[in-house]
Design goal:
Two copies of one chain form a homodimer. With 247 residues, the first copy, chain A, is of the alpha+beta class. The first copy, chain A, is built from seven helices and nine strands; from the N terminus they run H-E-E-E-E-E-E-H-H-H-E-H-H-E-E-H. The N terminus of chain A is likely disordered. Chain A binds a DNA duplex (30 and 30 nucleotides) through helix 6.
Chain lengths: 247, 247
DNA sequence: CGCGCTGTTGAAACTTGTCAAAGTTTGTGG
DNA sequence: CCACAAACTTTGACAAGTTTCAACAGCGCG
């Protein structure tokens, strides 16, 4: 964890989406080279967020959307009474901050779970360039829509799955996302604590811990602290949706 | 319930956002009259959806977004194993179908809970007009963003509230939305069954029924079948968030 | 090296789900 | 317009799953 990423001096190194290895994942796939050049100017600057630091906080005004280049972050919705709930975990290629467009204020905290680097994309600029490049515009809409779709999945999970299903679904989701980014899909580091997993899944940390132990006893996974290996992915898949949902 | 709305012949009556009483709620507030005229052509046609009928089904290709003029609908996400979960209840002024932009296929069923009337807005046309009218573009983004924000709220509810809090939050949300649309905020008809409420809130229908009875015994509400009256709105508000959340 | 944070595990308590039965409303067809 | 069937609602008793409380172990950081 916590790979130091201070190699990049954001003032000196010109940010360039056209040469960014993430450009297929991130906001701008399938553009002509001319369009890519225009997009390059979108990314205002890069920003390094050290582990534990906030990328943004709930309540502050929206300045930009943030595309994650490296690292791992969580977003937390805040209760009035001070408690918080993890709304999502975000990694390379994900776009953050879209919840703030509606009110112009961020609704959640964004906290780095390891040292991370993000590209700042001023919303105004994204919108004005969108008006010139239809495919960029449509892709932006698709990304927002996918966020809605993701949320629907979580609502399904929280509303109708028991703890084992939730955790299995969570691990498979992480696995799939790591795999899609070229990392191992069956062996990875959990960047978050049991409590954060529990908060995300609507469970207590003890339940998360117990269920992980249970999975290990069944030979589905091998877990030691934050290091996780999926040893029987089909078994996990069977667990999700198959078994008795609560609704 | 079930007010017959077949008065309108969608082929004859020209749809017109500029004269629509919903235009402040719906997609297009604060436009110049010239811009309104352009927007008028956006709305392809109106469509009547009778109670129990589908506005769209999961899996079908996205044609249009739908702005609700009158009526009441639910959207249901589908499990692979056939079970479904209500993802939202939608009323006058709400926009539906945004979850489908990402994959170009609807992710959920949309079912009318009473006879309803919607405006069809072809996405292509909305996007192309958005490119010409920046304020329309931004407003569309705000609407999508608000859907994300709404989902965050539901995740919070499902992940950290107990049944009483969930139901209180649900009733207050309905109240607030009816109030914002000029209807009574303290007395209204529940368009959905206990089972649908339960599905939305991650509870069983028996729990919903019991909790409503409990609220009534406490003098917070008065409920008879689908007719609901909030008699102590502060009491409901206290219940939400104050009392022991589970996270 | 020890202190705090994190994780594990156990037992009891509580919330909600499950099953069942009966009452009520709604819708349909005669 | 009535009668009957189907769908919806309410309520009770019991079971199951998850949380709560508590104690302890491990790891990492200062």
């Amino acid at each position: 964890m916590a790979i130091p990423l201070r190699i990049i001096d954001p003032d000196k190194l010109k940010t360039a989406c056209s040469t960014c290895s993430l450009h297929e994942l991130c906001l701008f796939p399938g553009l002509s080279t001319a369009e890519m050049k225009a997009v390059d100017h979108l990314v205002d600057r890069r920003r390094v967020v050290k582990r534990g630091d906030y990328l943004f906080r709930a309540g502050v005004n929206l300045h930009s959307l943030y595309a994650i280049r490296t690292g791992f972050l969580k977003s937390c919705v805040l209760h009035e009474d001070g408690r918080e709930q993890v709304a999502g975990f975000h990694m390379m290629g994900d776009l953050m901050g879209m919840d703030a467009i509606g009110t112009n204020q961020h609704l959640c905290d964004a906290v780095a779970l390891e040292d991370s680097e993000v590209c700042e994309i001023p919303l105004k600029d994204l919108e004005s360039l969108s008006r010139e490049i239809p495919s960029l515009q449509h892709h932006f809409h698709r990304i927002m829509s996918r966020e809605i779709a993701r949320d629907y999945g979580i609502m399904l999970l929280l509303g109708s799955m028991r703890s084992e299903e939730r955790l299995a679904a969570f691990l498979l989701n992480l696995s799939q996302r790591f795999g899609a980014r070229g990392y191992s899909a069956h062996e990875f580091h959990l960047r978050m604590t049991r409590e954060e997993i529990g908060s995300y899944l609507g469970l207590k940390l003890e339940t998360v811990s117990r269920t992980l132990s249970h999975f290990q006893a069944q030979g589905l996974i091998s877990v030691q602290n934050k290091h996780l290996r999926i040893t029987n992915i089909e078994g996990l898949q069977e667990l999700v949706g198959q078994h008795g949902c609560r609704t």
